[in-house]
Amino acid sequence: MSPTLKTHLTSLEKSAVKLPSAAALKIPHWTEEGVFCGWKTITFSQFLNDVENAARYWANELLQRNIKERDIVGVWVKGTSYLDAVQIWGIARAGYIPQLISLRLTHLDVVYDVLKLAGAKAVVFDSTFLQTLEVNMVALPVVDTRSMSLEHFPLPQLWVPSEQSDIVMIYHSSGSTSGMPKIVPLTSRWVDYAIESVEPIFRGLEGQQVVASNGSFCHIAAAMCLMGCHDLGHCVMLSKDIPPSPAEIKSMVNEYGLTVLFLFSSFLSKTLREARSDPELLRSLQIMPSVFHGGLALNPVDATWARANGLNLKDAFASTEVGLMMFGVGGSGSDAGYLQPPPGVKYRFVPASGSSIEDPESRNTGPGEQLLELVVPSESRNCPHESLRHKETGDFHTGDLFAEPIPGHFLSRGRNDDWIKMEISLRCDTKSIEGNVMELCGKDLVSTAVCLGTGRPSPALLVEPLQEEDGDDYSALKDEIVRRIRPFHERMYTHERIEDPRFIIVCPKGSLPRTSKGGVPRTVVEKKYEKALDEIYARK
Q1: Contact between residue 317 and residue 296 where contact means Cβ atoms under 8 Å apart
Q2: pTM of the full predicted structure?
Q3: Domain's final residue, options 187, 220, 242
Q4: How far apart are the first and last CA of the chain?
Q5: For the chain, how many structural domains are there in total?
């Protein structure tokens, strides 16, 4: 057994012993009448007690159904509440391997498929979303065990990893390929480093920090935040809304002690625009030691304004498979916007190639700038599970592209494939969407289909019709496209779907720009139709 391999559970136990009465979480609190009344503090000892109570319950329930320790148990919940965290941590504390399934995945067949693919023996689900779940395995609704007296049930011995390859939890890729997300098992080596990798966020800060959680515990960003913060004895604050409104941010900072804000870049841009005309919001952002953003590059105009107005912006570049890959330099110097690898990792930056990156204009590259793909070697502690690595090299090829204008300092330049990142940093496979449209509509309706939506809540589709009609708003064409593609999109994450004809733009035949090889440069098209896209999403 390696004593150096930390897990989310050993980190919680350590802080509960060292800092039992310190705040572990601050959670939204409502009266019985449903009136919001601020944030309630959960101490480390209370969180540990709630997790252990849940562990007693789930060990008893699952063992009765012949679900043995170290079996995989699916957890299909929203993942944004304290109760969800207690359930996830509690099932792990009971000795099982939680497989986290986001409620953004709504198609029952797909949920069952990913459970089977991972080898799950049972699934725990949110009964407020679905009263019953009919699958060919044990299916149990979430139970709030916090006030239940369960001391008569034994508490299983705390499982700790004995090998670096032991599986701690299972997540899924944030986008799907033809309606099926990839399984992302988290090894004990990966989790150990993920917990450690959060430390640079707090470097130079004194005392306990209060950190805003970033989304759902069923996605890796919020889970890593909770794991890493609790290992260091810091407090995680759950917002009432996702993203938090300007009024909520002001209350969190000024009344409840928020010190580190995490927002996806799209949400931060909106917050910064509000701050231009809201002095109180601006002051709230200014007094925080750090404002972190991630998912997409922050709009340069917003970043420049924020730094000029005293905000300490920092970028956190991450993915489900690798975790925190790069950190922004931060500060107010000329290098503030650059990214750097964190300590303890081993990366290779290899010259990128491929038709999808052949157009420099679409990548905002400088003169003579070389594009580099980040590759995580197998020996790096944050290299993901072997099932996700390159079959020949054994390394993980991220597909993320960077420029290196200064040695050791990087700028993000998008991806070398057909995936785009949406508003909440989750990914969308544009190629599979385009392929499905052409398969179903290419013979009689459209000649070209391009899926767009970087930084948007959901994708949009640009098509060139096979037959043009003067004065036609093409509403019938749009309706028919949506009708045909609906079964395909129902299987996808909610952020990947095109379900409304409003999100289809019909372009004149031959009007879309082409590369020398005949492809459509997605980023160029996105810029060309930016105003039209803005209008569509403003009406949503």
Answers
A1: no
A2: 0.86
A3: 242
A4: 54
A5: 2
